[in-house]
Protein backbone atom coordinates (compact mmCIF):
# COMPACT_ATOMS: atom_id res chain seq x y z
CA UNK A 1 0.00 0.00 0.00
CA UNK A 2 1.37 3.35 -1.00
CA UNK A 3 1.32 5.89 1.85
CA UNK A 4 -0.55 9.11 1.10
CA UNK A 5 -1.16 12.10 3.32
CA UNK A 6 -4.66 13.55 3.36
CA UNK A 7 -3.96 17.07 4.56
CA UNK A 8 -6.56 19.65 5.52
CA UNK A 9 -4.56 22.83 5.57
CA UNK A 10 -5.25 26.28 6.88
CA UNK A 11 -3.05 29.33 7.21
CA UNK A 12 -1.38 27.96 10.36
CA UNK A 13 -0.32 24.69 8.71
CA UNK A 14 0.67 25.94 5.26
CA UNK A 15 4.37 25.46 5.96
CA UNK A 16 3.90 21.95 7.33
CA UNK A 17 1.86 21.14 4.21
CA UNK A 18 4.77 22.14 1.94
CA UNK A 19 7.22 20.08 3.98
CA UNK A 20 4.95 17.01 3.99
CA UNK A 21 5.09 17.13 0.17
CA UNK A 22 8.87 16.68 0.28
CA UNK A 23 8.42 13.19 1.71
CA UNK A 24 4.96 11.94 0.75
CA UNK A 25 2.28 12.14 -1.89
CA UNK A 26 -0.14 14.65 -0.40
CA UNK A 27 -3.77 15.22 -1.35
CA UNK A 28 -6.33 17.63 0.05
CA UNK A 29 -9.55 15.81 -0.75
CA UNK A 30 -10.54 12.26 0.06
CA UNK A 31 -11.84 11.87 -3.49
CA UNK A 32 -8.26 12.38 -4.72
CA UNK A 33 -6.80 9.49 -2.72
CA UNK A 34 -5.45 6.90 -5.20
CA UNK A 35 -6.73 3.33 -4.91
CA UNK A 36 -5.08 1.03 -2.37
CA UNK A 37 -3.44 3.78 -0.35
CA UNK A 38 -2.39 3.78 3.26
CA UNK A 39 -3.87 7.12 4.28
CA UNK A 40 -2.27 9.25 6.96
CA UNK A 41 -4.69 11.98 7.89
CA UNK A 42 -3.32 15.35 8.92
CA UNK A 43 -5.94 17.56 10.56
CA UNK A 44 -8.42 15.88 8.21
CA UNK A 45 -9.89 12.91 10.07
CA UNK A 46 -12.45 14.71 12.25
CA UNK A 47 -15.23 15.23 12.96
CA UNK A 48 -16.42 12.12 11.10
CA UNK A 49 -13.72 9.46 11.35
CA UNK A 50 -16.09 6.64 10.58
CA UNK A 51 -17.41 8.29 7.41
CA UNK A 52 -13.90 8.97 6.20
CA UNK A 53 -12.88 5.38 6.91
CA UNK A 54 -15.93 4.18 5.00
CA UNK A 55 -15.31 6.42 1.98
CA UNK A 56 -11.67 5.37 1.76
CA UNK A 57 -12.54 1.67 1.86
CA UNK A 58 -14.54 2.06 -1.34
CA UNK A 59 -11.32 2.31 -3.36
CA UNK A 60 -9.39 -0.17 -1.24
CA UNK A 61 -7.61 2.40 0.94
CA UNK A 62 -7.36 2.54 4.69
CA UNK A 63 -6.38 4.96 7.43
CA UNK A 64 -3.18 4.46 9.41
CA UNK A 65 -5.31 4.05 12.56
CA UNK A 66 -8.38 1.84 12.30
CA UNK A 67 -11.70 2.94 13.76
CA UNK A 68 -11.05 0.87 16.87
CA UNK A 69 -7.62 2.40 17.26
CA UNK A 70 -9.08 5.86 16.79
CA UNK A 71 -11.78 5.18 19.38
CA UNK A 72 -9.36 3.78 21.90
CA UNK A 73 -7.64 7.17 22.02
CA UNK A 74 -10.68 9.40 21.56
CA UNK A 75 -12.84 7.66 24.17
CA UNK A 76 -10.17 7.80 26.84
CA UNK A 77 -10.09 3.99 26.84
CA UNK A 78 -6.33 4.36 27.10
CA UNK A 79 -6.62 5.26 30.77
CA UNK A 80 -6.83 1.66 31.99
CA UNK A 81 -3.81 0.53 30.00
CA UNK A 82 -1.50 3.28 31.27
CA UNK A 83 -3.03 4.11 34.68
CA UNK A 84 0.31 3.83 36.42
CA UNK A 85 1.83 6.58 34.27
CA UNK A 86 -0.88 9.23 34.29
CA UNK A 87 -3.09 11.35 36.60
CA UNK A 88 -5.70 9.51 38.62
CA UNK A 89 -9.04 10.00 36.89
CA UNK A 90 -12.69 9.89 37.99
CA UNK A 91 -15.59 9.50 35.60
CA UNK A 92 -18.50 10.40 37.91
CA UNK A 93 -18.85 13.54 40.02
CA UNK A 94 -20.22 11.61 42.99
CA UNK A 95 -16.98 9.63 43.25
CA UNK A 96 -14.78 12.69 43.71
CA UNK A 97 -12.98 12.99 47.07
CA UNK A 98 -13.91 16.09 49.09
CA UNK A 99 -10.76 16.42 51.13
CA UNK A 100 -8.90 19.33 49.56
CA UNK A 101 -7.94 17.35 46.45
CA UNK A 102 -7.60 19.64 43.43
CA UNK A 103 -8.78 18.63 39.96
CA UNK A 104 -8.51 19.33 36.29
CA UNK A 105 -11.89 19.02 34.54
CA UNK A 106 -12.04 18.36 30.80
CA UNK A 107 -13.59 16.40 27.95
CA UNK A 108 -12.23 12.96 27.04
CA UNK A 109 -10.27 14.47 24.15
CA UNK A 110 -10.39 18.27 24.41
CA UNK A 111 -10.43 20.84 27.16
CA UNK A 112 -11.01 24.56 27.66
CA UNK A 113 -7.45 24.97 28.86
CA UNK A 114 -7.28 28.54 27.57
CA UNK A 115 -9.87 29.32 30.25
CA UNK A 116 -7.75 27.54 32.87
CA UNK A 117 -8.96 29.52 35.91
CA UNK A 118 -12.62 29.37 34.99
CA UNK A 119 -13.20 26.16 33.04
CA UNK A 120 -10.39 23.73 33.82
CA UNK A 121 -8.70 24.04 37.19
CA UNK A 122 -10.76 23.26 40.30
CA UNK A 123 -9.40 23.66 43.83
CA UNK A 124 -12.29 21.68 45.36
CA UNK A 125 -14.95 19.11 44.57
CA UNK A 126 -17.56 21.88 44.58
CA UNK A 127 -15.68 23.89 41.94
CA UNK A 128 -15.09 20.71 39.87
CA UNK A 129 -18.82 20.07 39.73
CA UNK A 130 -19.52 23.69 38.79
CA UNK A 131 -17.08 23.40 35.89
CA UNK A 132 -18.62 20.09 34.83
CA UNK A 133 -22.04 21.74 34.63
CA UNK A 134 -20.69 24.43 32.30
CA UNK A 135 -18.76 21.92 30.16
CA UNK A 136 -21.91 19.83 29.84
CA UNK A 137 -23.40 22.75 27.90
CA UNK A 138 -20.30 23.12 25.71
CA UNK A 139 -20.89 21.88 22.16
CA UNK A 140 -17.32 20.57 21.74
CA UNK A 141 -16.80 19.03 25.18
CA UNK A 142 -20.27 17.74 26.10
CA UNK A 143 -20.49 14.96 23.47
CA UNK A 144 -17.06 13.63 24.58
CA UNK A 145 -18.13 13.28 28.20
CA UNK A 146 -16.41 15.10 31.06
CA UNK A 147 -13.65 13.50 33.14
CA UNK A 148 -12.02 14.64 36.38
CA UNK A 149 -8.28 14.26 36.83
CA UNK A 150 -6.20 14.71 39.95
CA UNK A 151 -4.34 18.02 39.69
CA UNK A 152 -0.59 17.53 39.95
CA UNK A 153 1.70 20.59 40.17
CA UNK A 154 4.10 20.59 37.21
CA UNK A 155 7.40 22.44 36.78
CA UNK A 156 6.17 25.81 35.51
CA UNK A 157 8.13 28.53 33.69
CA UNK A 158 5.45 31.18 33.32
CA UNK A 159 1.73 31.78 33.61
CA UNK A 160 -0.17 32.65 30.45
CA UNK A 161 -3.51 34.31 29.92
CA UNK A 162 -6.29 33.20 32.29
CA UNK A 163 -3.82 31.46 34.57
CA UNK A 164 -2.71 28.77 32.10
CA UNK A 165 0.64 27.37 33.31
CA UNK A 166 3.41 26.92 30.71
CA UNK A 167 5.09 23.89 32.14
CA UNK A 168 8.00 21.61 31.30
CA UNK A 169 5.98 19.51 28.91
CA UNK A 170 7.07 17.61 25.80
CA UNK A 171 5.22 16.20 22.84
CA UNK A 172 6.38 12.92 21.26
CA UNK A 173 5.18 11.56 17.92
CA UNK A 174 5.28 7.80 17.65
CA UNK A 175 4.89 5.33 14.82
CA UNK A 176 4.18 2.16 16.80
CA UNK A 177 7.11 1.86 19.19
CA UNK A 178 9.37 4.26 17.35
CA UNK A 179 9.87 7.86 18.38
CA UNK A 180 9.58 9.92 15.21
CA UNK A 181 10.31 13.26 16.84
CA UNK A 182 9.85 15.13 20.07
CA UNK A 183 9.72 18.78 21.02
CA UNK A 184 8.72 21.24 23.69
CA UNK A 185 4.95 21.41 24.00
CA UNK A 186 4.06 25.08 24.50
CA UNK A 187 4.72 26.97 21.28
CA UNK A 188 3.38 30.21 22.70
CA UNK A 189 5.68 30.21 25.74
CA UNK A 190 8.73 32.44 25.89
CA UNK A 191 11.99 31.04 24.67
CA UNK A 192 13.57 29.49 27.75
CA UNK A 193 16.03 26.65 27.85
CA UNK A 194 13.70 23.70 28.39
CA UNK A 195 15.36 20.48 29.38
CA UNK A 196 14.39 16.90 28.91
CA UNK A 197 16.11 14.13 30.80
CA UNK A 198 17.15 10.57 30.01
CA UNK A 199 14.67 9.49 32.63
CA UNK A 200 11.89 11.18 30.63
CA UNK A 201 12.92 9.35 27.47
CA UNK A 202 12.84 6.03 29.24
CA UNK A 203 9.49 6.92 30.79
CA UNK A 204 7.91 7.72 27.45
CA UNK A 205 9.36 4.66 25.77
CA UNK A 206 7.91 2.42 28.47
CA UNK A 207 4.49 3.93 27.82
CA UNK A 208 4.84 3.48 24.06
CA UNK A 209 5.56 -0.22 24.57
CA UNK A 210 2.02 -0.50 25.90
CA UNK A 211 0.30 1.95 23.57
CA UNK A 212 1.73 0.44 20.37
CA UNK A 213 -0.63 -2.51 20.82
CA UNK A 214 -3.59 -0.14 20.56
CA UNK A 215 -2.54 2.54 18.08
CA UNK A 216 -0.17 2.82 15.11
CA UNK A 217 0.35 6.55 15.00
CA UNK A 218 -0.02 8.50 18.21
CA UNK A 219 1.21 11.42 20.27
CA UNK A 220 2.27 11.20 23.90
CA UNK A 221 2.52 14.38 25.99
CA UNK A 222 4.53 14.14 29.18
CA UNK A 223 5.21 16.72 31.88
CA UNK A 224 7.72 17.09 34.70
CA UNK A 225 6.24 16.91 38.19
CA UNK A 226 7.36 19.36 40.86
CA UNK A 227 7.58 16.40 43.21
CA UNK A 228 10.06 14.75 40.82
CA UNK A 229 9.70 12.41 37.86
CA UNK A 230 7.40 12.61 34.85
CA UNK A 231 3.74 12.05 34.18
CA UNK A 232 1.76 11.19 31.07
CA UNK A 233 -0.59 14.09 30.35
CA UNK A 234 -2.55 12.58 27.53
CA UNK A 235 -2.53 10.44 24.40
CA UNK A 236 -3.73 11.82 21.09
CA UNK A 237 -4.19 10.39 17.63
CA UNK A 238 -1.14 11.74 15.80
CA UNK A 239 -3.28 12.47 12.76
CA UNK A 240 -4.85 15.36 14.68
CA UNK A 241 -1.96 16.31 16.97
CA UNK A 242 -0.43 19.73 16.38
CA UNK A 243 3.33 19.96 15.93
CA UNK A 244 4.18 21.99 19.03
CA UNK A 245 7.95 22.59 18.67
CA UNK A 246 8.49 19.45 16.60
CA UNK A 247 10.25 19.82 13.27
CA UNK A 248 7.95 18.77 10.43
CA UNK A 249 10.99 17.64 8.41
CA UNK A 250 11.97 15.20 11.14
CA UNK A 251 8.40 14.04 11.59
CA UNK A 252 7.71 13.31 7.94
CA UNK A 253 11.10 11.90 7.03
CA UNK A 254 11.10 9.54 10.00
CA UNK A 255 7.48 8.58 9.41
CA UNK A 256 8.33 7.70 5.84
CA UNK A 257 11.25 5.55 6.95
CA UNK A 258 9.24 4.14 9.84
CA UNK A 259 6.58 2.89 7.48
CA UNK A 260 9.10 1.69 4.92
CA UNK A 261 11.21 -0.22 7.44
CA UNK A 262 8.17 -0.97 9.55
CA UNK A 263 9.60 -0.33 12.94
CA UNK A 264 13.26 -0.99 12.45
CA UNK A 265 13.94 2.73 12.58
CA UNK A 266 16.18 3.97 15.33
CA UNK A 267 15.88 7.51 16.57
CA UNK A 268 19.39 8.65 17.15
CA UNK A 269 18.66 11.44 19.62
CA UNK A 270 17.67 8.83 22.13
CA UNK A 271 21.26 7.86 22.56
CA UNK A 272 24.01 9.85 24.17
CA UNK A 273 27.78 10.01 23.94
CA UNK A 274 28.35 6.61 25.57
CA UNK A 275 26.30 4.97 22.88
CA UNK A 276 28.21 6.63 20.06
CA UNK A 277 31.54 5.77 21.64
CA UNK A 278 30.48 2.14 21.50
CA UNK A 279 29.36 2.58 17.90
CA UNK A 280 32.72 4.05 17.05
CA UNK A 281 34.50 1.15 18.79
CA UNK A 282 32.74 -1.12 16.31
CA UNK A 283 33.61 1.08 13.32
CA UNK A 284 37.22 1.10 14.47
CA UNK A 285 37.76 -2.45 15.69
CA UNK A 286 35.72 -4.32 13.09
CA UNK A 287 35.48 -1.79 10.30
CA UNK A 288 39.02 -0.46 10.40
CA UNK A 289 38.02 3.20 10.71
CA UNK A 290 41.15 5.24 11.32
CA UNK A 291 42.35 8.79 11.73
CA UNK A 292 43.14 10.96 14.73
CA UNK A 293 40.29 13.04 16.06
CA UNK A 294 37.63 11.39 13.93
CA UNK A 295 36.06 9.78 16.95
CA UNK A 296 35.42 13.18 18.53
CA UNK A 297 33.89 14.63 15.36
CA UNK A 298 31.76 11.53 14.98
CA UNK A 299 30.35 11.88 18.49
CA UNK A 300 29.87 15.60 18.12
CA UNK A 301 27.99 15.07 14.87
CA UNK A 302 25.50 12.61 16.31
CA UNK A 303 24.96 14.12 19.73
CA UNK A 304 25.33 17.87 19.43
CA UNK A 305 25.58 19.17 15.91
CA UNK A 306 22.49 21.13 14.88
CA UNK A 307 23.31 20.37 11.27
CA UNK A 308 24.05 16.76 11.96
CA UNK A 309 24.52 14.47 9.03
CA UNK A 310 22.81 11.10 9.17
CA UNK A 311 25.65 9.51 7.22
CA UNK A 312 29.19 9.10 8.52
CA UNK A 313 31.75 7.98 6.00
CA UNK A 314 34.42 6.00 7.84
CA UNK A 315 35.71 4.01 4.83
CA UNK A 316 38.24 1.57 6.37
CA UNK A 317 37.63 -2.01 5.35
CA UNK A 318 34.40 -1.08 3.55
CA UNK A 319 36.19 1.00 0.95
CA UNK A 320 35.50 4.48 -0.38
CA UNK A 321 31.75 4.42 0.34
CA UNK A 322 31.95 2.70 3.75
CA UNK A 323 29.31 4.50 5.81
CA UNK A 324 27.53 4.40 9.13
CA UNK A 325 23.87 5.47 8.91
CA UNK A 326 22.61 7.03 12.11
CA UNK A 327 18.89 6.71 11.71
CA UNK A 328 18.98 3.01 11.10
CA UNK A 329 22.16 2.32 13.09
CA UNK A 330 23.69 0.24 10.29
CA UNK A 331 26.76 0.29 8.04
CA UNK A 332 26.96 -0.31 4.30
CA UNK A 333 29.21 0.32 1.32
CA UNK A 334 28.85 1.28 -2.33
CA UNK A 335 27.19 -1.54 -4.32
CA UNK A 336 30.10 -1.57 -6.78
CA UNK A 337 32.53 -2.20 -3.90
CA UNK A 338 30.66 -5.22 -2.58
CA UNK A 339 32.68 -8.44 -2.26
CA UNK A 340 31.70 -11.62 -0.38
CA UNK A 341 34.18 -10.70 2.38
CA UNK A 342 32.80 -7.16 2.67
CA UNK A 343 29.20 -8.35 2.77
CA UNK A 344 30.13 -10.73 5.54
CA UNK A 345 31.82 -7.95 7.46
CA UNK A 346 28.82 -5.64 7.01
CA UNK A 347 26.60 -8.31 8.43
CA UNK A 348 28.88 -8.87 11.39
CA UNK A 349 29.10 -5.13 12.13
CA UNK A 350 25.36 -4.68 11.88
CA UNK A 351 24.76 -7.50 14.33
CA UNK A 352 27.18 -5.87 16.77
CA UNK A 353 25.49 -2.48 16.27
CA UNK A 354 22.08 -3.96 16.87
CA UNK A 355 23.27 -5.58 20.07
CA UNK A 356 24.17 -2.15 21.43
CA UNK A 357 20.49 -1.19 21.32
CA UNK A 358 19.40 -4.00 23.57
CA UNK A 359 21.91 -3.11 26.29
N1 LIG B 1 -4.01 16.58 36.08
C1 LIG B 1 -3.31 17.65 35.72
N2 LIG B 1 -2.51 18.29 36.61
C2 LIG B 1 -1.80 19.38 36.23
N3 LIG B 1 -1.82 19.91 35.00
C3 LIG B 1 -2.61 19.33 34.08
C4 LIG B 1 -3.39 18.17 34.37
N4 LIG B 1 -4.06 17.82 33.27
C5 LIG B 1 -3.75 18.71 32.33
N5 LIG B 1 -2.86 19.62 32.80
C6 LIG B 1 -2.33 20.76 32.05
O1 LIG B 1 -3.33 21.24 31.18
C7 LIG B 1 -2.92 21.14 29.82
C8 LIG B 1 -4.08 20.68 28.95
O2 LIG B 1 -4.55 19.43 29.38
P1 LIG B 1 -4.87 18.25 28.36
O3 LIG B 1 -5.40 17.11 29.14
O4 LIG B 1 -3.68 17.98 27.54
O5 LIG B 1 -6.03 18.91 27.50
P2 LIG B 1 -6.08 19.17 25.92
O6 LIG B 1 -6.56 17.90 25.38
O7 LIG B 1 -7.04 20.27 25.75
O8 LIG B 1 -4.71 19.50 25.46
C9 LIG B 1 -1.79 20.13 29.82
O9 LIG B 1 -0.96 20.36 28.73
C10 LIG B 1 -1.15 20.36 31.17
O10 LIG B 1 -0.25 21.46 31.12
MG1 LIG C 1 -3.18 18.32 25.58
Detailed description of the structure:
This protein has 359 residues and is α+β, with helices and mostly antiparallel strands. It has four domains: 2-63, no CATH class; 88-151, no CATH class; 162-260, D-amino Acid Aminotransferase, Chain A, domain 1; 268-357, no CATH class. The protein has eleven helices and 17 strands. It has helices spanning 14-23, 49-58, 67-74, 78-82, 116-119, 125-135, 198-211, 248-260, 273-285, 294-303, 340-357, and strands spanning 2-7, 25-27, 37-42, 62-63, 89-90, 103-107, 121-122, 146-150, 156-159, 165-167, 169-175, 178-184, 217-224, 230-237, 311-313, 323-325, 330-332. The chain has a four-stranded parallel β-sheet with strand order 2-1-3-4, sandwiched between helices. Strands 5-8-6-7 form a four-stranded antiparallel β-sheet. A four-stranded antiparallel β-sheet has the order 12-11-13-14. Helix 2 (49-58) links the parallel strand 3 and strand 4 (62-63). Helix 1 (14-23) runs parallel beside helix 8 (248-260) and helix 9 packs antiparallel against helix 11. The chain is globular, with a radius of gyration of 23 Å. The protein starts with a strand and ends with a helix. Bound molecules: adenosine-5'-diphosphate and magnesium ion. Adenosine-5'-diphosphate is lined by residues 87, 104, 106, 110-111, 113, 149-152, 154, 167, 169, 221, 223, 233-234.
Amino acid sequence: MNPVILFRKDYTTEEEFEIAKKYFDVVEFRSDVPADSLVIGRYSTLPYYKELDHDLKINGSKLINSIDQYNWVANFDWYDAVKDYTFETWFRAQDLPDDGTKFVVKGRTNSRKHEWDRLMFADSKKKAIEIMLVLNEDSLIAPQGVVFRRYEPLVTYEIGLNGLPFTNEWRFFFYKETILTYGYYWTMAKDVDHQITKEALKFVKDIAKIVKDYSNFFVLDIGEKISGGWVLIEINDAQMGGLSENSPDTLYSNLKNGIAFDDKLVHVELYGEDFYHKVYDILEQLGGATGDGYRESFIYNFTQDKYKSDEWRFQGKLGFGGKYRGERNVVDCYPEDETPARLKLIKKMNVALKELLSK
